[in-house]
Write a structure and sequence with these properties.
Number of strands: 28
Structural class: alpha+beta
CATH topology of the domain at 390-631: Dipeptide-binding Protein, domain 3
Shape: globular
Largest sheet: 4 strands, mixed
CATH architecture of the domain at 390-631: Roll
Distance between the termini: 25 Å
């Protein structure tokens, strides 16, 4: 350690190389002396698996020496980068690795379908939000935010940031970046005609206290904010690089509009959105993403192609391990875009290091049989529910709209599905047939879970007859206007997992006289149909566990989306326009919205919280807007045997940010 301090600022390249070598030797040779999760050596922490540097140094009884990733050695020696001690915050977050101090280097290889299609998992490898869920999937822990303090009524929260924290370009990250995000982006009417959720429900504003403290003020209690930021809101950072983005913002650059039009944009706001996107993965899908600073563990390395994106470690990342090594250990994230039919072979041949998103459970037997060849292990953590079905209750066709809006039609469609057979043939009999209800919650009973979930084609036929869908000579149902009733099901594999599932369900519906036309489309095409209110069926990732339901009850009420609206688009338009556009929803939808607005202000486990939760369940089941298939569905999770410090997933789901709770920044290649 004395050597480290003696060489803290040399100009001689040989001396620096010696310093780096000795730092690495220290890390490797004495790795077993440092606290890790599996052997904390008497170290206790307020939050699981992490603590602040000052607390850790009190435990050590000395200052902690900081060590450099060899990846940055050349830039440091050429004075293109500061030394690691000058790149880290003054208050870095200390992370206990799971099983051992890791090694630097390597490329973590993953797969996605295409830009904006199945990329959430690889985004989760590098995510860095204010807070996150620990790997128990219940405990909120500090991350970018060092700490927070609520007001007594939970209508105000003050976040304390880390002193000296820097963006990936070396510029200071301060409270100004948080103020800029909320006041100048989220609340700006030229960027957002309607304030995005969840902010729009709380009338927010942000106030700067000083460089490292910022206060959010809401019109009513927002008890669930941290659950949102740690879960499905982890994909939406509540901060933005003001020093970079202000050049495109009309408030800070009076010429921004003229410059944008000269560059071929409609106005300054459209150019601004090229460099900022609420869905943060949308920034790095084009060349301009190379310019935009980030706080994530990895930054875009080169211009993305249609085949791949490559990310490289962020030299200003804010975490260290207990040996003083700056994280992340892994240098490169390599995301390849491939057709889903090619995934299995890539995994089996050992060209994928971690994969779970969009992996169908029926792939498990083949993957299991080829583990040795592919040099990987398999996990089966719970991901939530099997694919769910939403009929479009605001359909443009008046006849179809009437049919889909009748709960009896939804009952019939549900009762016609043989969930046990689906479980056996496609899900290895590992799941539970039941309706689409939020999981691990105290206010959903077994009776609720089985509502209209049995296989009863006879009763399904009766419901269809009752609503006037009589069978024609060919055995298929006819609408009240005399036209044949045909469901056009345009599905994306991102949300339906397997071609076999819609084929099986279409077969069950055919058995009760419902004709179904199936067509596979891209995720982008499916979303476009949803937004245009021009589809019969929507499918979505639907995995609200209690913390995520609490944070975003809108995942279980119209328009039901996790990252974007899914169904009931005309109702959503009516709500956002204060009744000037779209279609006024029925009373049950309005009631759900009202309950949702109150639900997020409550204390989990309180009597009123449970009472409102039961009402959310009751209204949804009564109208059966969401038709479920299976519950407790495992998500096939592939992990290379070459990776170290990878824990066992308890839950692997979009609404928890996939790998985000499992700290990819401390994974390493053995």
């Amino acid at each position: 350690m004395k050597i480290h301090h003696a060489l803290s600022g040399p100009k001689d390249c040989v001396a620096i190389a010696l310093f780096v070598f000795l730092s690495l030797v220290h890390t490797v040779v004495f790795a077993n002396e440092w606290p890790i999760v599996s052997n904390p050596k008497g170290l206790t922490t307020k939050y699981p698996q992490q603590l602040e540097l000052a607390e850790y140094e009190r435990y050590l009884g000395k200052k902690l020496a900081l060590h450099e990733n060899p990846l940055f050695r050349q830039k440091v020696t050429r004075s293109m980068l500061p030394l690691v001690k000058d790149r880290l915050p003054l208050e870095p977050l200390v992370v206990l690795p799971n099983n051992g101090i890791g090694k630097y280097g390597g490329a973590l290889r993953g797969l996605a379908l295409s830009y904006e299609s199945g990329t959430s998992e690889i985004l989760s490898w590098r995510q860095a939000n204010f807070v996150r869920f620990s790997d128990d999937n219940r405990t909120i822990v500090p991350n970018i935010a060092k700490s927070w303090q609520w007001s007594k009524d939970r209508s105000q929260i003050t976040f304390c940031l880390r002193k000296g924290h820097r963006w990936s370009d070396g510029a200071p990250f301060t409270a100004d970046d948080v103020i800029f995000y909320l006041n100048d982006i989220i609340l700006n009417k030229e960027i957002h005609k309607q304030t995005p959720t969840p902010w729009k429900n709380f009338g927010p504003k942000a106030e700067k206290i000083d460089e490292t403290r910022v206060k959010f003020i809401f019109e009513k209690p927002y008890t669930s904010l941290l659950f949102f930021l740690g879960g499905n809101g982890s994909y939406y950072d509540p901060f933005a690089p003001k020093h970079f983005l202000k050049q495109f913002h009309i408030k800070y650059n009076p010429d921004a509009d003229r410059q944008a039009k000269a560059n071929g944009f409609e106005n300054w706001a459209s150019q601004f959105k090229t460099y900022w996107n609420r869905w943060k993965d949308g920034v790095v899908n084009k060349a301009s993403g190379l310019e935009v600073p980030t706080l994530e563990s990895h930054i875009l390395k080169e211009v993305p192609t249609k085949k791949s994106r490559i990310f490289i470690a962020n030299p200003f990342y804010f975490k260290i391990d207990t040996a003083g090594n700056q994280l992340p250990y892994i240098d490169i994230h390599n995301e390849r875009f491939l057709e889903k039919k090619l995934w299995l072979q890539e995994i089996i041949e050992g060209r994928v290091d971690q994969k779970s998103q969009n992996m169908p459970l029926d792939s498990y037997p083949k993957l299991k049989a080829n583990q040795k060849n592919g040099d990987y292990s398999l996990q089966l953590p719970i991901t939530g529910l099997g694919p769910v079905i939403f009929f479009n209750k605001t359909h443009k066709d008046p006849a179809k709209k009437k049919i889909y809006a009748d709960p009896r039609f939804n009952y019939a469609a549900s009762l016609a599905i043989n969930r046990s057979e689906i479980n056996e043939k496609l899900f290895l009999n590992l799941c539970k047939p039941q309706q689409a209800l939020p999981q691990n919650i105290p206010f959903a009973t077994d009776k609720d879970k089985q509502f209209m979930a049995g296989y009863d084609p006879g009763q399904a036929n009766k419901f269809l007859d009752e609503i006037g869908l009589k069978k024609g000579p060919d055995g298929y149902r006819i609408q009240s206007d005399g036209k044949p009733f045909t469901i056009t099901w345009e599905y994306s594999l991102q949300y339906i997992w397997s071609h076999k599932l819609p084929k099986m369900i279409a077969g069950y519906w055919n058995d009760v006289g419902i004709r179904v036309d199936l067509k596979e489309v891209t995720s982008k095409e499916a979303r476009a149909k949803q937004f245009a209110n021009d589809n019969d069926i929507s499918n979505e990732i639907f995995s609200p566990f209690e913390p995520t339901l609490f944070a975003s009850p809108t995942t279980f009420m119209p328009p039901y989306g996790t990252s974007h609206p899914v169904t009931g688009i005309a109702w959503w338009q009516w709500k956002n326009s204060n009744g000037t556009k779209g279609e006024e929803p029925p009373l049950w939808v309005k009631n759900l919205w009202e309950i949702g607005e109150e639900f997020v202000t409550l204390i989990p486990g309180s009597n009123w919280y449970n009472a409102l939760g039961k009402e959310i369940i009751r209204i949804n089941l009564e109208n059966l807007s969401v038709i479920g298939t299976l519950a407790e569905v495992p998500l096939v999770t592939i992990v290379s045997n070459k990776l170290g410090n990878v824990p066992l997933w308890k839950i692997n789901a979009y609404n928890y940010g996939y790998a985000y709770p499992y700290r990819t920044d401390q994974w390493y290649f053995k």
